[in-house]
Structure formats: C-alpha cells, structure tokens
Amino acid sequence: MIAGGAVIVTGGRITAVGSRDGLLRDAPGTTELSFPDATLLPGLINAHVHLGFDASDKPTLRFQDPGDPAALALMMAGHARQLLDVGVTTARDLGDRDGLAARVRDAIAAGSIPGPRLLVAGAPITPSGGHCWYLGGVADGEAQIRQRVRENAAAGVDLIKVMASGGQTTPGGAGMSESQYSTRELVALVEEAHGLGLPVAAHAHGIASIDSAIAAGVDTIEHCTFLAGPGRFEPSDELAARIVAKDIAVCPGSSGNWRALGRKIGDDRAYAMVGRTKWLADRGVRVIAGTDAGLSAFNDFPMALRRYLDFGFRPEQVIAAATVEAAAATGVGHVTGRLAEGFDADILVVDGDPRTDLTALASPVLVLAQGRTHLPPESVMRGAGRSRPAHS
Ligand SMILES: [Zn+2]
After folding, report:
1. How remote is the CA of residue 204 from the centroid of ligand 1, in Å?
2. Distance 329 CA to ligand 1 centre (A)
3. Phi and psi at residue 193, in whole multiples of 5°?
4. Phi-psi category of 370—alpha, beta or left, where left has phi over 0 and alpha has psi -120 to 50?
C-alpha cells in the first residue's frame, strides 16, 4: 500500500508506480487525474461468468431456444459492459454457444465495445443429455472428448471447460453429486487440452468428480461443493490436501448469497455449502472469486465479495482472491492482477479504503480497462447506499 501514491499509464500499460510527488516530477506534461480520498487497486477478476445466461428466473432459456444469435450476442455485449461498470476488468466465460463469447471478446479487444478482457471456454464438454448439453459441447468417450477439445481449440477458445459432475440447471441429466465422466476420460481431456496449450476448468460438485478432476490435473475446480449425495456435503481433508499438492485453484462459482439459498434449503445447509470456500482456504487451497453471473446478476460482484467476510475471510484475502490470485490461476498473472510496471492498465479507483471497509468496492469512481477509461454509471452505486463523490 502506497499512501499518496500514483500510477502512470502510457497507452494501455502501466509504466510507473510509486509516490505521487516523485512520479509527477519525473513525468512532466502528464495529464493528471486526482482522487484524494480514493484507493487505486488492480481491476477485479470474476473468474466464473456466463454472458449468455440472462440472470432471470429461467436464466438458460434463451440458450435452449435457438433464437436469434445476433440478439443473443448483443445481450452478451450488454452483460460484459455491466461487469465493467462494477470494476471487473477480466472475466472468464465458462460456457456459451456458437462461439458467441469469443466474438464479444474480440469486439472488446478491438475497442468496438466496452467490456473486460474475456477468457472464453466456448461450449462446455459434457456427455449426451448431460449438464448444459444444449450449449453444443456433447462428447461421449475418450475419442469424442479429444475431438471436441480440438474443435474448441480451433474455434479460438482460451481454455476448456468440462462438466465433470451434473448440475442443478439441467433436468434429466446426472445428479449434482454424480460424475459425468470417468477419471480416464478426464485424463484424456486434460492431456489433449494441455497439449494445445489450453488450461482446463472442471465443474465438479460431487466428491467422486472432484477426486477425478484432481487426478486428471485440471487447472481450476469450479464449485467444489463436496456433495456426497443429494443434500449431503462431506468436505474431505484428503481431497483438499491433494488439491493443494497439485496447485489447483478453486472457484466457488457462486454469488455467495447463502441467505437467499438458505430460504430454499435452510440456513445451516446453505452456510455449509457456500461457506466451504473458507474451509478450503484454511487448508491452503488457492480460492479465487467467481459468481456464476448469468445465473446471478452481472453487477453484484462487489456485494458477492463482501459476503466472503461472512465466512471469516479478511478483506485483503478477498481482494487478492479477486485480483492477483485470480490472475495467476487463470493464466493472465503476467499481464493483470497487479499495479506494477509493465502490466496492463487495468485499474479500479474506489472511494475509501477497501482494506478497512470492503463496501468501498461498491463505490467505483473510475475504471481503466487496458488503459481505456470507463465511468461507472450512478446505478451501480444504488445497492451500496452511498452517494457519489462530488469530485468524480
Ligand atoms: Zn457456471
């Protein structure tokens, strides 16, 4: 933390970080933006979103109905902008259809539309009738799995997403606690993906699916709920130790709103399910932040981060999980997640000090995404109940 600090941005890059007085002396002619009571931190990373889901009661409906791809792509562009509004400058899209997220990614990179840097998985790989089969990534058996990985790679994805267990949004498929693939099949998938230079994110709720994902050497485990059967959570010290040994990061892929979940399944169970991330962190597992936006709102990331405090995380831990740790775990630790010379100018300016009060994250004053300026709209501050500072 630098009190009275400054960051010099040239083009899309950070070219210097240090004390304000020294830096401005060395860089005459620099246009200065001053935020006296604000904190500058790296732009946030939401490691689990679905731009194509619409965060309604039936979030995946538009995807199940073929509909109009152009309309869907425009909706996804709007969602990307909502992420940026709350300071998210990098997001991983972990499942869409028809390569649309990659188009949105490319339009943002070209500067055509505002949005965060996107890392896209394309269609998640899943068996016939399995979780999210309607996104088009169906593959049964080793040969088809390898073929599907190669097809996604050819379509320009940044990573491979596999549905190692069932999920809650696909009726008729495997249950959440059941595995969709054998360990051998996941090993083949990871081998093929890594051979093409692509990391693997595995959706895994069930204990057996988590076990297989670890054995296969995936890069991140999404959800990691430790479901032993319907409604039975059995966190395993042995599995947690193996996750640490393999340096796999865990993304809860949840809005963190355990109280809302509690109204459906009871507070104790909801807390046990969502609060497991702290249990994992206490055992040395690298936890990174992600909300499954698309199933939840796109502009609630600051609120979702605040809920980590309910489980005993410290504010600094939460900020790291949404910046430097998430960048490293998603393969972009060399370009973002830190305010340091040579890194992309992904910068979030918030009113106040988030280390002492994490609600400060809900008061973004300015967002820079790869050096491009984005002014958050008033509406994103409503949830925080704080007024916008006059100097912004
Ligand atoms: Zn998801």
Report:
1. 10
2. 17
3. -65, -50
4. left
For residue 53, what are the CA distances in angstroms to 44, 85, 94, 202?
A: 21, 18, 11, 19
Task: Please state at what angle helix 100-109 crosses helix 69-85, rounded to 10 degrees.
Answer: 50
Distance CA 116, CA 105 (A): 8
> Ligand 1 mean position to 29 CA, how many Å?
46
CA gap 336, 1 in Å, rounded: 17
All structural domains of the chain? 5-41+339-384 (2.30.40.10), 43-329 (3.20.20.140)
Q: Kindly report, residue by residue over 83-131, the tens digit of the pLDDT.
A: 999 999 999 999 999 999 999 999 999 999 999 999 999 999 999 999 9
What is the spatial distance between Cα 89 and Cα 82, in angstroms, rounded to a whole number?
11
2 alpha carbon – ligand 1 mean position (Å): 36
Contacts of 110 (CB under 8 A, 6+ apart): none
Query: What's the CA-to-centroid distance between 253 and ligand 1, angstroms?
Result: 6
Q: What is the pLDDT at residue 64?
A: 64
> Are 335 and 370 spatial neighbours (Cβ–Cβ below 8 Å)?
no
157-198 tens-digit pLDDT: 999 999 999 987 777 788 899 999 999 999 999 999 999 999
